[in-house]
């Protein structure tokens, strides 16, 4: 079952976080680029002191304990999110079922 899910994530090309049980560590923001037999190839980057490093790592399927993927994110900064009223008229979604009791 895990093999099929990992294969699906590989085909989708989405970023995932992978927990390696045998090393007790997370690989964050990785892409699963290949699956061959019980070997899974991951590609990811790390931010070290003064450089960004790109990695390609092959791990055994049985060493993968968990795979997570980010569904959505919202900025924590003090930026006010856009509301419907801020949306240009041409891009607004029309109400196809107007209220029967207008106030």
**Which series of helices and strands comes N to C?**
HEEEEE
Helical proportion, percent range: 10-25%
**From the helix content, strand content and strand pairing, which structural class follows?**
mainly beta
Stretches with pLDDT under 50, minimum 5 residues: none
Could you tell me the radius of gyration in angstroms? 21 Å
Main sheet: strand order: 4-3-2-1-5
Tell me the major beta sheet.
5 strands, antiparallel
Q: What number is the mean pLDDT?
A: 85
Strand content: 35-45%
Tally of DSSP β-strands: 5
- Describe the global form: elongated
Distance between the termini: 54 Å
Number of helices: 1
Structure overview:
The longest helix has 11 residues. The protein contains one helix and five strands; from the N terminus they run αβββββ. A hairpin with a 4-residue loop joins strand 1 and strand 2. With 103 residues, the chain is mainly β. A five-stranded antiparallel sheet has the order 4-3-2-1-5.
Summarize the structure.
Pfam families: DUF6679 (PF20384). The protein has 103 residues and is mainly beta.
Which terms summarize this structure?
103 residues, mainly beta, 1 helix, 42% strand
Can you lay out the helices and strands and say which pair or pack?
Layout: H1 2-12, E1 15-20, E2 25-36, E3 39-48, E4 51-60, E5 64-68
Antiparallel strand pairs: 1-2, 1-5, 2-3, 3-4
């Amino acid at each position: 079952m895990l093999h099929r899910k990992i294969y699906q994530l590989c085909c989708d090309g989405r970023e995932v976080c992978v927990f390696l049980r045998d090393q007790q560590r997370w690989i964050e923001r990785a892409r699963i680029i290949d699956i061959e037999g019980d070997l899974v190839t991951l590609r990811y980057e790390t931010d070290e002191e003064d450089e960004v490093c790109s990695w390609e790592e092959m791990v055994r399927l049985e060493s993968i304990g968990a795979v997570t993927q980010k569904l959505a994110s919202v900025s924590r900064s003090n930026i006010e999110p856009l509301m419907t009223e801020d949306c240009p008229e041409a891009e607004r979604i029309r109400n196809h079922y107007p209220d029967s009791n207008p106030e």
